[in-house]
Amino acid sequence: MTITEAPQATRRLTTSKAMVEAIAQEMERDPSVFYLGEDVGAYGGIFSSTTGLLERFGPQRIIDTPISETAFIGLGIGAAVEGMRPIVEVMFTDFMGVCLDQIYNHMAKIHFESGGNVKVPMVLTMAAGGGYSDGAQHSQCLWGTFAHLPGMKVVVPSTPADAKGLMTSAIRDDNPVVYIFHKGVMGLPWMVKNPRSIDEVPDGEHTVPIGEARVAREGSDVTVVTLSLSVHHALDVAESLAPQGIDVEVVDLRSLVPLDRDAIVASVAKTGRLVVVDEDYLSFGVSAEVVASVTDRDPTLLRVPPQRIAVPDVPIPYAHDLEHAVLPRHDRIERAVRTAMGR
Amino acid sequence: MTQTLDREPAADVRHRLDLLREMVRIRLFEERCVELYSAAKIRGFLHVAIGEEAVAVGVNAVLDEGDAVVSTYREHGHAIARGMSMDSVMAEMYGKATGCSRGRGGSMHLFDVGRRFYGGNAIVAGGLPLAIGLALADKMRMRPTVTVCFFGDGAFAEGEFHECVNLAALWRLPVLFACENNLYAMGTAIARAQAETDLALRAASYGIAAWPVDGMDVVAVEEAADRAVDRIRAGGGPCFLELRTYRFRAHSMYDPERYRDKAEVARWRERDPIDLLTHQLTAEGGLSAEARDAMAAEVTAEVDRAVAAAEAAPLEPAEDLERFVYTETEA
């Protein structure tokens, strides 16, 4: 039997609207889906992650909580164990410090330590990233920390369409999925304007498989493997270098767990040059893991040493100039690409 | 004469014999675990609840099949009282494939979805958030069920406890907070850790019904749990019971017990919950010496069978190590 699908209609949406649309569609489809967090109701989410949902679904399914992250994450775990599909929002990744026990000792381990008997189909969503002078406790990415701890999937969308598709997939997944959105990709009117934060999004049902990277731009000279807001920066750099004869391929990881190592290796096999761009801390993190994905498989694929552009191992500073010095922005990405190219 | 829950006298005796048998099952199971630990058949840390059996049995006695239980790392008794078979629990102690958690959990992580027994949580106060979530799910689905959360007095020192009781009270979640106050958080006496040691009083400050119970008297525990569960089922919101009990043995297996007097342990042993009920039933003529011996023999045989089954059971193959980190059936 052949099923011919009509091409899906699209419209241009911001990432935040795309994310909200996915949540709303899944809440319509499945009564066990509900949303829980701080100021997700009347406020609509500080980063517009739930705008309009309270009006549509009411306070029984869009639930404001006290500032008790440990209690309400665990509450989500308990509800998920009972077959509900909660989406639990921690306002900032930085706040993981007050509730990490529930995340990595309970959410991520119950399935394993129960010998596969107990399932935890929940989404833990949170905002990440800096660039707007919010200081050391409100600007971190920390996705590498979640990815390091076994038992949870980790997705990090960069585009409106992927934000929708990955949210849908995360809600439907029977595993705990940590869904991290960078504030800079949401298309928020009060943030630095980012033209790539508004784009075509399929109408209706849209899923993106967890664990599949996406080639955001094809190129033949050098591979930039990156994620989240840094994808946008890498695309900007690629476009600016194209007229100078440097053809950059940009791989958007989209998921950290599972990591699409095949896609990384395939791109490097083509270009022979690797630049990893990550807004998380440099050491012991995503950037080293990406390099190891290549060297574990075949170190001879690399014609030149790989370059890693990440946040040096310092807390994120407040002052604009200092903050921009630590973030992986255009200038640093371009320098790394040029170093890899020997130009 | 203590009569439980308005039963007819004969039924009451039968019922209390059942309670006694459950306590004896837990006691003999755990005493065997201690022996097996010394023989290196059981590994890791082993936390037995010998002396605290009345709490597990009295609370579980009032639960329905659909109710949920969340427990701590000292949970063998809760699991057995909840109806988990000695076979599945003992096999888990052995780390065998037939264990309730397929050897991945061990003594501190017993689970049984069918009985809604959700661990086996080895972080102090770590089970409380899970419990209020189970209760929220039940409430959202309008099920008339109750979630019982067992935890120790040590949990009062964790912020997690206060967050969860507040939230449960705020949203009137159907949870019974069953605090096993055995006076020690590991080796730290309660007065050395808590500025106010009246735990029921502190729980009541969240606006919930809370009261202390003699945790060595299984009938008193059952009556209190029954009252609390009725109230919760009727939509009265969460309740808190401070079940005053005592563990007769070390915190874990190797513990020199330098933190408490031998005389204190001896005093509490005089209130052994199994002895108390045995004497009471014997005095009433409801339990003969022969019946008592027969009960012990039957339970011993049940433990023997569980040990034999665990000995014979296969190990989970190491090649399957990565199974159950993530689910195998994708949604």
UniProtKB/TrEMBL annotation, chain A:
The lineage of its organism: Bacteria, Bacillati, Actinomycetota, Actinomycetes, Propionibacteriales. Pfam families: Transket_pyr, Transketolase_C. NCBIfam families: PRK09212.1. Residues 13-188 form the Transketolase-like pyrimidine-binding domain. Keywords: Oxidoreductase, Thiamine pyrophosphate. Gene3D superfamilies: 3.40.50.920, 3.40.50.970. The keyword Lipoprotein does not apply. This is Alpha-ketoacid dehydrogenase subunit beta. Its cofactor is thiamine diphosphate. PANTHER family: PYRUVATE DEHYDROGENASE E1 COMPONENT BETA SUBUNIT, PYRUVATE DEHYDROGENASE E1 COMPONENT SUBUNIT BETA. InterPro entries: THDP-binding, Transketo_C/PFOR_II, Transketolase-like_Pyr-bd, Transketolase_C.
TrEMBL record, chain B:
The keyword Nucleotide-binding does not apply. Its EC number is 1.2.4.1. Residues 22-316 form the Dehydrogenase E1 component domain. Pfam families: E1_dh (PF00676). Its cofactor is thiamine diphosphate. It catalyses: N(6)-[(R)-lipoyl]-L-lysyl-[protein] + pyruvate + H(+) = N(6)-[(R)-S(8)-acetyldihydrolipoyl]-L-lysyl-[protein] + CO2. It comes from the Bacteria. InterPro entries: DH_E1 (IPR001017), PDH_E1_Alpha_Subunit (IPR050642), Pyrv_DH_E1_asu_subgrp-y (IPR017597), THDP-binding (IPR029061). The chain crosses the membrane at residues 117-137. Keywords: Membrane, Oxidoreductase, Pyruvate, Thiamine pyrophosphate, Transmembrane, Transmembrane helix. Heterodimer of an alpha and a beta chain. The pyruvate dehydrogenase complex catalyzes the overall conversion of pyruvate to acetyl-CoA and CO(2). This is Pyruvate dehydrogenase E1 component subunit alpha. It comes from Nocardioides jiangsuensis. The gene is pdhA.
